[in-house]
Structure formats: structure tokens, C-alpha cells
Amino acid sequence: MRKIVAIMLALVLGLSLLPGLLLAQNPETDGAAGASPPEAEPIQAATGEQATGLSLDAKGAILMDPQTGEVLWEKNAHQRYYPASMTKLMTMVIAMDMVANGQATLGEPVQVSERAESFGGSEVFLAVGESFPLEQMLIAIAVASANDASVAIAEHLAGSEEAFVAMMNAKAKELGLKNTHFANCHGLHDEQNYTSAYDMAVIARYALRYPKIREWTSIKRYTLRKDPLTILDTTNKMLYWYPGTDGFKTGFTDAAGLNLVSTVEREGLRFIAVVMGVETPRGNFTDSMKLYNWAYKQWAFRQLYAPGQVVAIVPVGKGRVQQVQVVATAKAGARVSRTRGQAEKVTARLDLPAILNAPVKDGQKVGQLKVYREGQEITTVDLVTNAAVARASLGQQISRVIRAVFTIRQ
To answer: Which of 127, 184, 264, 272 is most open to solvent, judged by the fewest CB atoms within 10 Å of its CB?
Structure first.
């Protein structure tokens, strides 16, 4: 009887182990014993319609992270198309470069020539001899896409439109644009006035360094004159329809179709989108919103420090006070994926001197903060002092030495 029981127990044990033995012989079965887990596929940014399921009417389009310049989505991004009035974004860039370099001021008067007055299409009906400050002329471009104001600015800043356009093309070359050539400063159709979605995104990324451009291109309505009353309304309906939009420029001609170069920031995360050659009415806006909706589902912004936030305290040698706070000049953080199972690691590294010697100026650049995502450097933020520190008097310095000596003796 004992033998029979032992045999039965052996059979039961053998049957219970049989599935495991079979699994061990089949390495393709999920969780197979003795088989290594499959290596995770590298995660890459989806960059096309098939990869993302996005379907746009635009002939060419792009979504870019302006912090890194990374292309997050694209469709024929390097194909040449006519920019139409998106050309004016480069016009504004050249003007602001000249202001930044001290070659012009926003308050200087810009007088209207007979040639500038003659330009039709989108205009603010400038009259010969009329004069406006440069900033107001730039606002007329940003809000109403004024061709006449564009020519007036070009003539004023460079002496002629041709000379100004040469500056625009020089800038395109400086930015490394391979598929861009400007034939005018306004975007009225010319076979030799072309760009690509990628190149226009690079121009927009450069334009972000000038907050004034975003300030002007985010204006919805502007009073240019009171007599005769001239009220300008924005051509960029994204400002009304998509919260977080603060730039940049629409464009349309029969040859170009509907274009839009735009930028949006939400919860600290900014993107740039360009759509070109759209034929559907208002499709330049709907295509852009599709891109942004998709982007904000994919990514968020992880902020380490806000602009003006104290990052560190640095000792000050021979100063009236012995330390000074150091703050970030811009937000410090990085774009991170919402869809990854494990959160991406965002870290910062400070590059600061061990001590500053007085005198120290308020706002003095003293170092940098480098932001890393998964160990890869993403961006660099300048660090500045948030107060001035005067040099200590001789009496103060002697007093400190005496206190230090007695402290050591105790």
C-alpha cells in the first residue's frame, strides 16, 4: 500500500512540473525560464504622420523644441515653399539685431517714402512724409502684416530695400539655413523668395531671444493713429483660439497658400510650429493646433529653478557684507516625456567661483547653471548676483581680522 501511495505522489509531482519543463524548452514563450528578457527598443521622437497618426493638410510642417532645437515632428520639413508674409519675421529679427547692436533705437523716427507708400496688399495706408517711431512700425508689421511699414523700415535701416534684403540673406547664411532665400522684406510673391518649414522654425527660435518680438506679435488689437483713426487687428487667430500663443506670423498668397509660424508656451514648456502650403480655409490654424495638442500630450516641463530664484550663496572677499545671493536669469529645466513608464531624471550642475572679491555689481554675471536630462546637457542658464556689494572700509577689514583672531584663540 505504501508503494502505491508513493507511486501516486510521484505521478502528481511529475504532472505539476511538466508545464514548467515544457516552458523551459520554448524560449519564445513570455516569461520563459532560462530566457533573457527582450531588450527595450530605444525610444525616439516620432517625426512623421505614419509614426504619430497625425494628419495635416499642410504641404510642409514641423514641430520644434526651441530649447534644444530638436525636431519632434516633421512633414517635408526641408522642402522649399513660398513663405508669403512669414518673411516679415526675418524683417523684425534684422531690426532687433540692429537695436541690440546699438545701430538703431526703437524710439527713432521712421519716415515714409513714396516707394513705401506705394505697396498694397496688407498695409496700414502710410502716407509719404508720415513718420512713426521704429517700434510702432514694427508693431504694424507684427499685428497687421503691413507691407508698407516693412519697406519703410528696410529703407530707413539699410538705405534701400535691396540692401536690407542682403542683410536678411546674410542672416539666413549665419543661421545655417540651406533652403532659404529672400527677394524682398515683405513676402509679396517672388519666385526667388522661398524657405522651408525647418528653416522658418530656426528663424523663429532665433527670434525668441528678443522678448519684444513676442510682445508685439501677441498684440490682438492696436491703435496706430487717432487721426484718422487706424485700428489694427491681428492676422494670427491663434491668439484668440489657442491659450499660450504669443507669436509669430501668418502668411498668404495664391502661390504660397496659407502659412503660419507660431510659438506656444504652457506650464513652462514652449514649442515652435510651422505649417506651409495649406489650402483648407483657416487650415494653417487648425493644423498648428493639432501639432500643439499632440505635443502637450507627449511632453511636460520639469522646472528646477524659476527666473530670479536664488540658486546659491557665494562668499564675498573684502566686501561690506560677506556673501551675496546668486539667481537664475531664466527658467532652468527640461522637457520630459509624459508617456514613458519611468520618469526621466533632470539634474543641474553649478559652475561658480569659490569666492567673489568686492566690489560686486548688482546683476553681475558670476557663473552658469547647466541642466542635464538623463546625463545629457540640455541647456545653460547664466547666474547673476541679486545685489551690489561695496568694498569694505579699512576699519571694517581690521575689525574682521581682530574678531577672527580672538575666535581662533577661544
So the answer is: 127
- CATH architecture of the domain 306-394 equals Sandwich (2.60)
Other CB atoms closer than 10 Å to residue 343's CB: what's the count? Answer: 10
Q: What is the pTM of this model?
A: 0.83
Catalytic residue (one of 88, 171, 249, 331): 88
From the candidates 59, 75, 85, 122, give the one annotated as an active-site residue.
Answer: 85
Residue 188 CA neighbour count, 13 Å, CB half: 11
Domain with CATH 2.60.410.10 in the chain: 306-394
From first CA to last CA, the distance across the chain in angstroms is 92
Assign domain 49-302 to its CATH architecture: 3-Layer(aba) Sandwich (3.40)
Q: Which of 145, 196, 262, 288 is catalytic?
A: 145
| CA–CA dist 236, 219 (Å, integer) | 10
Based on the residue annotation, tell me whether 85 is a catalytic residue of this protein.
yes
Q: What's the pLDDT band for 180 if we cut at 50, 70, 90?
A: very high
Closest by alpha carbon to 188, among 151, 160, 222, 137? 151
Please tell me which residue, 343 or 220, carries the higher pLDDT value: 220
